[in-house]
Task: structure prediction
Amino acid sequence: MERIERFEYALSFSTPAFLGNAEQRAAWRSPPFKALLRHWWRVWRAAGSKVSVAGLREEEGDLFGNAWLNRHLHRASRVRIAVRPPARGGRIWETAQWPERFERVRATATGQGVPSDLYLGYGPITPPGRGQRVNLRGGALAPAQCGTFFLSAPQSAVSDIRGVLQYIDWFGAVGSRARNGWGSVSLSSHQSAPPLRPLAAVEPMLVRCLRPWWECLDSEWPHALGADDKGRPLVWISGPLENWRKAIELLAQIKAEMRIRAKSNPAAGALAYLGYPAGPKGNPCEIPFKRGSEGRLPSQIRFKIRPEGDCGKVVAVIYHLPCAVPEDFIDSVADSQRKRTLADVDAQRDTWKDMHGVLDGRHDLRRLGAH
Result:
C-alpha cells in the first residue's frame, strides 16, 4: 500500500473572501480550495507546453477522484484536504462592518466614478441605496485571520502537490470575484510541511510553467503562465502598499485603464477578450448572442494581493494566463462579423500586446525579471 504524506499550512486571506455556503452566507469551506488545487495542478502538469487534454483528464481523475472515466477507473480522491477556520468560525463582515470610502475609479473615459470595491466586486458587493455604504449580499470572510489547511496525498504525487501549493501561494485566490483579487490566499508552512519560496523570475518552479504567450492561443484552457519574447514571465508587481484597501484601489484603476483602452476599438472584440459580459446592455461593445445562448468569458488577466513582510503591508500582483477564445463562445455569437473578429488570432494578439503595454507603462508596477 502506498505511503501517504500529510502536510499542514497556516491559511489566511490577504483580502476579504466571498465564500458562501448552501444559504449563500459567508463561511469557511473546503470545496473551493480543492477546485483551486485542481486548477493549479493542471498548470503544473502541463509544464509550459501544449498537452493532451484527454490524457490530463485521466491523470486528474485518477488522483482527485472521478465518476466519469470508464467503470474500471472510477475511484475516490487520493488527495484529501480540510480547512479549519479560526476560533469560533472566524470573523464575518456584514454590510455594517465593511470599510467605507474607497477611492472612486472612472470606468469609462467620460463617465462618473465608481467605488473601487464595487468596481472589482460587483455581484457580492452591490451599489449603495440611500446611504453611502455599498451592500454585501452574503457577507464576507474578514482578512488577516489565520486558519489551518490540512492536506494528505500519496507519496508518488507529493512532488506535484508541493509545486501546486507554491503556485497557490504565489497566485491563488478563491470565492466569488477571485480573479479580481478577492479571497487572495496566503499559505505558510506548519510543522513538517515543505517551506514556500518567494516569487522570483528565476525560480525553477515558476520557469517550469512559462510558455510564450502567443503560442498559448492554440489552446482553449489556461495551461501556462505567459512569457514575453525575452522569456520573462507576464507578471507585474506593485511596490509595497499600506493595506489591502490600497491594493484594491490600485487594481481597480488598472482594470479600468485596460478596459477604456480596449473600448477604443470595440469592433475588434478587444473588450470581450478581457472578460465578458463587458458592460450594461446598450453598450456599443455588447455582443449579440443567438436566442437561448448566454455568453460568458472569464478574464485571462488575473489579480492577486500578497502580504509583504511582517508589517501588514501588501503588494498587488497581476499576471496573464493566456488562452484562445473557446469555440463554444464564438459559436453562440449571432453576428457573423463579430464571430469572425472574436476568432481572429491576430486581433487577439494585438489586444494582448496593447494590454501588456498598458501594464508596462505604469510607473507603479514592475515587470518580474525586468531590470
The radius of gyration is 21 Å. The mean pLDDT is 90.
